[in-house]
Predict the structure.
Amino acid sequence: MKKSILTLCFIGLFAFVTSTSQAQIHFGVNLSGGFPLNEFQVENPNTGFGVNLNAFFPFAPKVPVYIGFDFGFQGMGSRTVQKTVNIDIAVGTSNTRIPINFDIATSNNMINGHAVLKAKLPLPLVQPYAEGLIGFKHFYTRTSIKDVTSPVSTNLANALREEFQRNSEIAGQTLQQSTALSYGFGGGFHIMFGGGQFGMTLGARYLLGGQASYYTREDIQDFDVQVTTNNGTNNNEQGATLGNNNRGPRTSRTDMILAHLGIVISL
């Protein structure tokens, strides 16, 4: 009897709130943390960090059920090393040697995108919500040469440095990429201010994932990157040979928890 009364009270409260509330389009920007689970955690125990963007649209003006889209990027480990290559330039009978310093960065990244079905209780201040998601996770590892500087203060060296600095990435290669199905559920709270026009959001998602291949933060510590002054087309032209010491990528399911904290804006 008590359970029936509580259930009727909850239904009545929900009906009253939804009948007096106007469902609104809302957008969000979240800082997120990715925590691997199950066999994904065994292969890759590292936490990822990044940002997610989302937008939600109501089914009807007074129905607090929304269809939305969420896209995010997470960094899952990086490594940067510095190397120096000497460039020999001959002008007439004189030779000039210019040392060029390279920052070589290797990073593991994940892009995720989901279609989201979301229901929330549109209370004035704290609005609990639940959601279901389906989409993808895309993993990739990229090595790039960038941030070139020269310690030589000649006009020629300065001209070379300025030319290189116009491009943030001088050379690069995606060493591994793989995409997996992603689906799951989540929940959290919107804490609204300003008459419900903006607020904070706090939540988490449990995302199951299909099999994908990827490198871990520990794997990329052993990557070998060779920078040369000849890429096979012209002398003194910058090039690179990117390798990974024959280390193969890991493969597993990609289950994870994605926790987020951010802002929400209603229109």
